[in-house]
Amino acid sequence: MKIALAGNPNSGKTTLFNAITGKTEYVGNWPGVTVEKKEANLNRKFEKIFSKGRVVDLPGAYSIAPFTGEEAITRDFVLGESPDVIINIVDANSLERSLFFTTQLLELGIPVVIALNKQDIVRRHGNKTDIEGLAKTLKCKIVETIANDGEGLKELIKVAANLAESNNSQKAPEFNNKGTENENKARQQFVKDVVDKHFIKKRDTSKVTTSDKADRIVANAFWGLPIFAIIMWAVYAFSIQGLGGFLSEYFNEVIFGEIVPDAANGFLEAVGVHPLLQALIVDGAIGGVGAVIGFLPLIMVLFFCLGLLEDSGYMARVAVVMDRYFKKIGLSGKSIIPMIVGSGCSIPGVMATRTIEDENEKRMTTILTPFVPCGAKLPIIALFAAVFFPASTWVAPSMYILAFIMIAIGGLILKKIFVWENTSSFIIELPEYKIPSLKHALTQMIKQAKAFIIKASTIILVMNTLVWIMQTYSWSFQVVEDSGLSILASIGGFIAPLLIPLGFVGWQLAAATITGFIAKENVVATFAIILIASSEEALHMPGGVLTQLFTPVTAYAFLVFNLFTPPCFAAIGAMNAEMSNRKWLGKAILFQLSVGYIMAMIITQIGTIVVYGELSIGFVPAIFVSILYIVLITVLIKRANRKKAQMRKVAQ
Amino acid sequence: MQLFKAKAGYTSQIKTVSGNDKIRNFLFSLGCSEGEDITLISILAGNYIINIKDSRYAIDKKMAKAIEVI
């Protein structure tokens, strides 16, 4: 039996979905959090009422006729896969707007039960709904719910079960002019009459509320941007340098620096394992994965903070603040939401671009969102900041600032290179503010922590084992004394020349760069494995072994290189899904690689001259590469200008 | 007049909505269409915060120009 959840954006569908299935799908207090359909079995505690229930959560829609990509998913599912029963979640506080979609759902013939949600807010406002009368007029069952604390859910499932089993076709309310040209107008009038009759409104919503007053401050033309900057700075500072950084240091130094390897060594020696196997386990697996897991607290704190922020209702306001800036660089105000989500992980970030209606703005956001440092890049940033810049607190924040500067510049360049007309307009619903739920933030944090541990113990573990084997053996499968003769060194050495203009010398850096393309955490893990042979000291010590490979300037350049190049295979997959066009995916990846490459090159070459007063390695090749890029960009801009001129001619 | 020219606190009814079909249909599904009540709550950072059918929306200047109110 299939139960579909449908309703307006931000009416609480996913909260209800999580409550009746026991899942922890992503929820947030802004319209358009869910962008794909999600399926799960009904929670066991409902087994007696509704056996073998399969619940499908659908993206929010205002009408059966889609406006954005994710709304089309909802229509296609409801029309194409005919669920056994539809639970229509209606935010009781915007009844009139919601019932427009409801009346459309009622006409499909599939049994519908309305979950009249957010009753807590209705009660707080002193409004009243005549449930019986409303149900009679609409010819369907209605259950009052508060999805947040589970009220009414049992009753809702009971009604849904009865409807699904009865197999009766849903009756729709009748109104004049149905089936005519003016049907929608008539529908609107019908809904209005229904609401006038059955909803007793105590509170005039057109009056200025506390929420509006708060908006006047946080979305103020002058204060909006500084407030946003301060909030984000607080979130990242707390995660990277505050609590998260503190806990990570403990994890790195004590747990994965001493306790775990010592215990493993002791155990393996006692058992009498071959020393090479012991090295594989302790140096390869534990050393590599440990170097990554050590940063787990940092990521957990970050997701906890983001969870609070997402639940508060502030995200929609940031979109309002950013719209006028982002429009100038070819993005929409809504592009900020994928970017904030992307600061946790690029994959949901890229997927969140689906709520952007305009195809060009969406594409641009997909290309630029991965520039924001994601959770996987944090370990690299934290590690390099600790080793090379122990006394400076500006390094980590500078990554975020640089990311936003490059998003702006990148947007401007893309706008110059590619030809498109700007026809977009901006509209976003502003949900009411609420006190963020700690439970919600904790759930998100635990979910992300689990995902991180799974990733570390699967893909990263496998990669690390491979890296260890490749750096221990030569092509003839002999154990090598000097890792410079290993398989890894020869593969790294193959790529290494490409990195010389960036001042990155050595196969080790090339090897870390390659593994980093699979997942960015691998960069840290690979360094941990490569360098464990040359030093007993922990990897993240200030002035530690990494200084053999980098100067502070090239270290910073390396950070920047990793910041802008594509984050990981999975994120590229997500980009592919959103662009649904191989050519654009190719352009996006080339663009990201180029930005990472050029930025790192500029920092190394100019930085070395300024800081050390000498020319860096690879200065001459860098000049050539720069000239090449300047020519390329000029040609592309000229070509775009020609096309634009042509289009104007055609238009005239 | 265009909503664009109204001042914060202005309550009125929508006369017409112009623009392409896709956007007009979308606005219609929100209840932003001819004859509906609309209140301009505030103007923030170049955006217009409006109240339609008990919900708040932020729209940009371009949309505010496309909405004609009585």
TrEMBL record, chain A:
Chain ranges passing through the membrane: 217-238, 285-309, 367-388, 394-414, 452-473, 485-505, 517-535, 555-577, 589-612, 618-637
CDD domains: FeoB
Any one Gene Ontology molecular-function term assigned to this protein's record: ferrous iron transmembrane transporter activity
Compartments (UniProt record): Cell membrane
GO cellular component, one term: plasma membrane
UniProt KW keywords: Cell membrane, GTP-binding, Ion transport, Iron, Iron transport, Magnesium, Membrane, Metal-binding, Nucleotide-binding, Transmembrane, Transmembrane helix, Transport
Residues that coordinate or bind Mg(2+) 1: 22
Residues reported to bind Mg(2+) 2: 18-19, 21
Domain FeoB-type G: start-end pairs: 1-166
Membrane topology qualifier: Multi-pass membrane protein
Binding residues annotated for GTP, in chain numbering: 7-14, 32-36, 57-60, 117-120
Signal peptide region: none
One Pfam family from the record: Gate
Broad class of where this protein is predominantly found: membrane
Source taxon at top rank: Bacteria
PROSITE patterns: G_FEOB
Record family assignment: Belongs to the TRAFAC class TrmE-Era-EngA-EngB-Septin-like GTPase superfamily. FeoB GTPase (TC 9.A.8) family.
Cited PANTHER family: FE(2+) TRANSPORTER FEOB (PTHR43185:SF1), FERROUS IRON TRANSPORT PROTEIN B (PTHR43185)
Protein's UniProt name: Ferrous iron transport protein B
Automatic annotation (TrEMBL), chain B:
Keywords: Iron
Database matches in InterPro entries: Fe-transptr_FeoA-like (IPR007167), FeoA-like (IPR053184), FeoA_core_dom (IPR038157), Transcriptional_repressor_C (IPR008988)
Residues covered by the Ferrous iron transporter FeoA-like domain: 1-70
One annotated GO molecular function: transition metal ion binding
One Pfam family it belongs to: FeoA
Cell inner membrane in keyword set: no
Domain of life: Bacteria
Signal sequence segment: none
Name of this chain's protein: Ferrous iron transport protein A
Organism of origin: Alkalibaculum sporogenes
